[in-house]
Amino acid sequence: MRGLISVENIEKIYHRGAEKVHALKGVTLQFNQPAFVAIVGPTGSGKTTLLQIIGCLDRASSGVVRINGTPLNSISERAIVQLRREKIGFVFQQFFLIPELTVKENVALPLLFSRKKVDDDHIMSLLHMVDITDRAEHLPNQLSGGEMQRVAIARALANDPEVILADEPTGNLDTKTSKKIFRVFETLYLQGLTVIVVTHNEDLAKNCKRVIELVDGNIIKDETK
Ligand code: ADP
Ligand code: MG
Hints:
Helices cover 32% and strands 30% of the residues. It is of the alpha/beta class. The chain has a single domain (34-59, 86-224), classed as P-loop containing nucleotide triphosphate hydrolases (Rossmann fold), CATH 3.40.50. The strands form two sheets. A six-stranded mixed β-sheet has the order 6-7-8-3-9-10, sandwiched between helices. Helix 4 (120-129) crosses helix 5 (145-156). The longest helix is centred in the C-terminal third of the chain and has 16 residues, at 175-190. The two termini are 18 Å apart. Residues 47-48 line the site of magnesium ion (MG).
C-alpha cells in the first residue's frame, strides 16, 4: 500500500553561525491512513524538526517527502501551502489561540484563511467533537489548559484534514487532562485520520498503535502493535 505521507532518507542540517547542527541524519518512514503514531525521544533528538518536515512547515536539507505519492520537490511553493492547508491540521504545546477571539472564532479561523464559508453548524459540530460546545462564546483566558487544547484540536480539524500533527500537545497539561486529549486523538484515528503525536510521556505513547523513537537524529525504534 502506498503511504499517505512518506519521508525517504531525510537529513536536516541547521546552521547556527559557523556551527552546523545535524538534526536529522537520514530518516525514512511511511505513514498510512488511518494511523495513530507517537514519536518519542529525548529533548534535541529531532522530533519537532521531523514533524515540521512531515507537515511541510520546514524543508529537509536532503531527501524526499511525498504526500499521496507526490514528491514535494516537484510542486510549487503555492501548491505546498494549499496541500498543507487542506490535508494537515497542527496542534502545539502552547495552543496558540488568539486571545481576542472567542472559541468559535478561533475554530473558524482556518476556514477564513482558506476563503471558505463559515457555517455555524459546522463550527458547533467541531466543538462537539472535542466536547466543548458549552464554551463556544468564551475567550481563551476563560478556559483551562485542557479546554484550550481541545479548542486548538477543533481548529486543526476545521478544514477537514487527513492528518493531525501534534507537537507535545500535553506538555503543559496534568496527567488526567493529558489522557483526555489522547482519547480525543484516538477517536480521530478511529474515524480514519492519521494522527502523529510527539510526546515525552511514555505512558501516553503506549496508547498509540505505533511508537517511533528518535535519538540524536536517528530512528532507533519503530514498533507497531
Ligand atoms: P526535539 O523536538 O526532539 O527536542 P528539535 O527538532 O527541536 O528536537 O531539535 C533537534 C536539534 O536541532 C537540536 O540540537 C536543536 O538545538 C537543533 N535545532 C532545532 N531548531 C533549530 C534552528 N532553528 N536553528 C538551529 N538549530 C536548531
Ligand atoms: Mg520539540
